[in-house]
Amino acid sequence: MAKTTSPTNPPTPAAAPTFSVGIDLGTTNSVIAYARLGPERPTVELLAVPQLVAAATVEPRPLLPSFVYLGTDADRDAKALDLPWAAGRDFAVGELARKQSADVPTRTVVGAKSWLAYSKVDRRQPILPWGAPPDVPKVSPVEASTRYLAHVAAAWAAAFPDAPLASQQVVLTVPASFDAAARDLTREAAAAAGLPDDTILLEEPQAALYAWLADRGDAWRRHVKVGNTLLVADVGGGTTDFTLVGVTEEAGDLALTRLAVGNHTLVGGDNMDLALAHHATAAFAAKGVALDPWQSVSLWHACRAAKEALLAADGPATHPVSVLGRGRKVIGGTVSVDLERDAVRQLLVDGFFPAAAVTDVPQRPRASGFRQIGLPFEADAAVTRHLTAFLSQQGQGGRPVRPTHLLFNGGVFKAAAFRQRLGETIGSWFGAGAGGGGAVDGGPRVLEGNDDLDFAVARGAAYYGFTKRGKGVRIRGGTARSYYVGIETAGLAIPGAARPLRALCVVPFGMEEGTSADVPGEEIGLVVGEPAAFRFFSAAARKQDKPGDLLDRWAEGELEETDSLEANLPKPEGVDEDYVPVTFQSVINELGVFELWCVGAADGQRWKLEFSVRQDAE
């Protein structure tokens, strides 16, 4: 949404917060951690979240599965979904909902976080569960995210009734690759759930690194030196994120600076579960059982538990997966097959972390002319090839960036087999001895710590809130991308052809939160008094561009268009033209939101354009 703004009175100062609260709104699980702000050194703790684990059975668990079960009238009437703080519920969030995803997939919302980043649908409309029959209730991706966060907020209120969450320092994590629109939707869900207006959004790979810093304390400086490059490899339930952090020096002391983040890549544990489901389908077929579409979706969710059990360090040799029977002879029963650990490990390790050359790139098969609408999952599920593309994009002279240290994050890396394969593969790219002591087969040195990857992001977010108070070490870096506004060129009209578009850089890579920049250059005409579309672009690799740089052309894929803004900006009194000359001022506010202020050249009147999401689907 675009809107005009005018100066307002400053808000009344709020009471000082008691806690820094970190919330990991994950694709598969959500976690809450906290630390008191008083001590010089923080002690980060986890909050167990009460949730339904079975009908009418509430237990506290450290993880809140990010699933919503949309119950029936019978569930509501039987009070089966009630919570200590909510009666008459017709939905459930958490462990019970996760179990229902295998038994009743058409009534269970999964992957809402991935849908927040998908601009091809209206994320405020009730579209989930995707593909559910018309008679099943649905919710929007924003509403599902709101329900997760509202549950977390209610758990906090029950544990700390004298410290309202709205009065605390709250840090909410998002994927590093989330664009401004997805961040805005996340913030919208947070506000609807009762989180503070000044909730800070922090990138998940950075949060993982903050967790490592919290564990190491001042000793972190003994593990790195100036010139080192840290790679955070974050493979979660729904997405893969890569972040590079450089070790620099400021005033004679070591400092950390974020160098780059990767693109939004929809490859993760969910893909592995689906791969296992295909593998299990063949096993069912060998037993003469043909699964229908309903059972196939159920099997996908059932394979999640099998994967986690078989890849655990002390996992069994086999693990059963079951689905409810559908034929007349098995109504009310189940059909099962056993998956073997060695076969599953080979399938997933070789399929998602194949050995690759540093020159390999993700495979892009020719797209079909027709395709089903849904999440844009990657055609190539090889995490290693997505990593080569990222490191090559950030390198110079055709040579990829060489990471000296590696930090694992995300639930996928709980399995040692995946950590081992990725370390070996990176080592093969740069030769033995690349990382020194502690390296995996000559690869980058692994930063040990973050022992339980399920909780690292939330713990790091809580620690980050502590650093915002001037304590501890901060990772510098600002915006992960450069941002541009599309400027339509003047000239003669040509039938059937759009006017050429130029891209004006308005936010440079690395612009810090809470800062502003005047954009130099000639005045630009701002359309007022009629509906207009404002086009914005971003680039991850063009770190050289500065505010005022005007691009006449760019390579394919170099700039990515964000969600456009549509607005009818008011026309000032006394203006006859349909545009006014303006200059630009860019602001990255404390919440990480990009604001573009258009300043009238004649009278200084100001209009503000900020990233949001169109009301209608693209």
What does this protein structure show overall?
- The structure is a single chain.
- This protein is α+β, with helices and mostly antiparallel strands and 618 residues long.
- Among the domains are: 19-201, ATPase, nucleotide binding domain (Nucleotidyltransferase, domain 5, 2-Layer Sandwich), CATH 3.30.420.40; 478-610, Substrate Binding Domain Of DNAk, Chain A, domain 1.
- Helices cover 25% and strands 26% of the residues.
- It is built from twelve helices and 31 strands.
- Strands 2, 3, 4, 7, 11 and 12 form a six-stranded mixed beta sheet that branches. A six-stranded mixed beta sheet has the order 19-18-13-14-15-20, with helices on both faces.
- A hairpin with a 4-residue loop joins strand 13 and strand 14 (240-250).
- Helix 4 (141-159) crosses helix 5 (180-192) and helix 6 crosses helix 12 (456-467).
- The radius of gyration is 25 Å and the shape is globular.
- The two termini are 15 Å apart.
- The model is unreliable at 1-13, 328-332, 433-441 and 612-618 (pLDDT under 50).
